[in-house]
Write a structure and sequence with these properties.
homodimer; about 325 residues; alpha/beta; Isopropylmalate Dehydrogenase; about 45% helix; globular
Amino acid sequence: MKIVLDGMGGDNAPFATVEGAVLAAKEFGAHIIIAGIKDVLERELSKYGSHIPNIEIHHASEIIDMHDAPAASVRKKKDSSINAAVKLVKEGKASAMVSAGNTGAVVCATTLYLRLLKGLERPGIAIVAPTLKGVSLIIDVGANIDPKPVHLLQYGIMGDVYSRAILKKFNPIVGLLNIGQEASKGTDFIKKAYDLFAKSRLNFIGNVEGRDLFNGKCDVIVCDGFVGNVVLKVSESLAESLSALLKRELGESFITRLGALFSKSALMAMKREMDYTEYGGAPLLGIDGICIICHGSSSAKAIKNAIKVAAEFVDHKVNQHIVEAIAGSML
Amino acid sequence: MKIVLDGMGGDNAPFATVEGAVLAAKEFGAHIIIAGIKDVLERELSKYGSHIPNIEIHHASEIIDMHDAPAASVRKKKDSSINAAVKLVKEGKASAMVSAGNTGAVVCATTLYLRLLKGLERPGIAIVAPTLKGVSLIIDVGANIDPKPVHLLQYGIMGDVYSRAILKKFNPIVGLLNIGQEASKGTDFIKKAYDLFAKSRLNFIGNVEGRDLFNGKCDVIVCDGFVGNVVLKVSESLAESLSALLKRELGESFITRLGALFSKSALMAMKREMDYTEYGGAPLLGIDGICIICHGSSSAKAIKNAIKVAAEFVDHKVNQHIVEAIAGSML
């Protein structure tokens, strides 16, 4: 099994991408193809000493950056590292891809070249979020910002499959993100989605609210990509703001500074527990191929963990299970 | 100036509502009418000793509870404490109302009986959120979950007026909550709203993302009521989850317990800074009257602060300024 990594994608590329690949190759023997500008990647790789047998470089001359328009750049920059990675997956030369690059471009390139799994209408990005009781999956956080109700149902089905296969949840509880618990709440769009979920075979708990996102009430939380994206960014920034506030408060007097020293290990543990990078990247579900999307600011550790998630995705035949579940849902 | 308080609204009514009224009457001499079931309110009020001259009770025999359908309950329960409060405002017997009751019912009753300000099409709930640099206003957090683009522009205008009058901001920076900064990002709905903002006289900074909600980048953040409601509840719960996690981590060893003891004052200060109750309730902007909505779980302190905000709202003639600004926006 080979995994192709977009070597040029992300704010910290190529440093973090190459280091992440080296860590993954060394720590769990992953075989990695790094796609991108050969000279740049070779120079970066040479920092890690002699030849690493598990890593090869695949030259791609162009870079789609974070500000490029997704669809246009995928079509124009034909030899971008993102397109190159997608093509290696399409040709069967890699089993999965990992990218911390322009998310819109990754969604666009994979949908365009790999196409969707049978029965699926739209892809969705799922993230694994830490909660007070283990982890939950939130889908979609930005692949599809204007979905139809049936797309939400398909997200629920894919989330259910992923939770069982990768997160080892038994009969995952699925909730629909809404502004209130009652079935009568929300827009017409969300009420139609509710009806589809209620008729499905999913272990559907009904509507959940924003406050249920991190309390572990559900294993899978379904929302449209606009709401999911906003929520994800709010959560990240709020966690950061709280840390900053706490640091500011802790710095204010000798007594609290002393307290900070003593409680440092607890703060570190908390930070670790809330750290998205610990859980690897976000799977792009629904495409006929495997793609793990990483945060643009991914560190080498985040890249390494995303490569691990990609390998697990391959091992557990997630896509095959998704196709079966989607087919079963239409009986 | 008299302020009418919905005595029966909220999870902690009538205890927290009556105590909040007593605190407001004593601390800043507010004159308060408490609407609700007379016997219940009198019994509760008697706990605070002899007659408090600034507080009177207005009997209303019915209660709209948190699970009642908003529109139906406002029409059926004609003598509810919410309806009674709205009518006292309509008749000019009170200058403003405060309620921690069923938010949907409050929005419905005020819109139905007080009507909207001239030129306004929908009301919006604005909350004052703490950020790393002072406070920001987020509007709408749930009054209107399926708005048109022009409603968002009107929220921006009302938010601008409120920020100037009450939050003492000079030329407030207004941002539109979206999934990316570029004008090309988002749904058709949000792109149309962007165009309206770009042509307006507001100090419009463009699109902002979820991560900008708590970093103080904007003074006024505009979003639809669905997204705003989800974001608000996510933020509240995440702050709570982080506190719980921190407590759990801090409790784990003797050293960290000692650290916790020392850093307790810092934690308390942080909690205070993040505490919505410190900032009083959320103004319902756009109605032809003044209404401050409190969180269902409001404490007496939160009620007291909401009464203070209501009084400031009256003093600063916010509604008059809103009507002028809306009229000016259409020149």
